[in-house]
Amino acid sequence: MADVNQGSVLPRETSPPALDGLNATDSNGTDAVNATVAKFVATPEGTALAYGSLVFMALLPIFFGALRSVSCGKSKNSSDMPETITGRDAARFPIIASCTLFGLYLFFKIFSQEYINLLLSMYFFVLGILALSHTMSPFMNRIFPANIPIKQYQLLFTQGSGEAKEEMVNYEFDTKDMICLVISTVVGVWYILKKHWIANNLFGLAFALNGVELLHLNNISTGCILLGGLFVYDVFWVFGTNVMVTVAKSFEAPIKLVFPQDLLEKGLGASQFAMLGLGDIVIPGIFIALLLRFDVSLKKNTRTYFHTSFLAYIFGLGLTIWVMHTFKHAQPALLYLVPACIGFPLVVALLKGELTEMFRYEEVSAEDVAAKEGTTQVEKKDK
After folding, report:
1. 51, 115, 144, 311 - which has most CB atoms within 10 Å?
2. Which residues contact 157 (CB under 8 A, 6 or more apart)?
3. Helices (H) and strands (E) in the chain, counts
4. Catalytic residue annotation
């Protein structure tokens, strides 16, 4: 889940295949580090369209991912089961993310960038197809013609034999899932061959939605630890060193959403992009999804904390873009998103007298549920 471009919202001026970012910008919104390239000055309309589109695209996976996170734990497919993040995981995550980021930095310094990006492209090609297929599945269920027969399939991998046999993978799918897989593969081939910004965004949105849906924080305290740790991580690696700049400039993968600032002039062939790292979507998104599940647990038929945190995210992201555009410098978005997404809901809980109840809310992991069900069945047999 570590995202080398977690802390950036910025304009950029290179071609789509490079997908580089986190570059310092001069007063005209162009790369100060690339003096040999003719300066590009975005029109106010193009800038507004690019930033507005990035905000809109960022909200989509958070909104739909949060809604899907409420029911994803009921799925029978092991691949659809949520991964629960505990307090220990949250405390270690900024350290793991930092090690991963610095490791990539060393790799790009030592080895050929071309071969590393070839491996990364193939890796994200496979992951992107699976993520996009999973994202499309609910929509395919609604539009699939009722008169077409649906066949069921099951992919089962086990380890051992007899009573010691364990299920490693148990994935159930049908004809609709196969169609989603074919469509996703077409998008994947398009991305590999052209590195087009639309294909990049389709994969990026799928990654973000799956992250928000399938990564669950077990309680509010864990969410505060995770967001607080990544707040420090983001600020340090963006403002303190050039590591994130170097990695993001070299990294060719759909780990960011991009939108052209010259779309009005050049159409789909535009090449001057503003961008937003997926980490700036997924990290706040899983906290917002947790608050939605907390709303559901209250059984009051309201979504107060979800709506509050969702609006707080819009405010934080808008503030990030305003600061970046005003000072013409890449910004660690979590610097603004974390205080907004944590602070606003806590203030609302304090005013409603539900602060204690909020911090007492606890989610049980899928493994614990399975273990508890297994224990119950054993007890019934013993009786």
Report:
1. 51
2. 167, 168, 169, 170
3. 13, 7
4. 234, 280
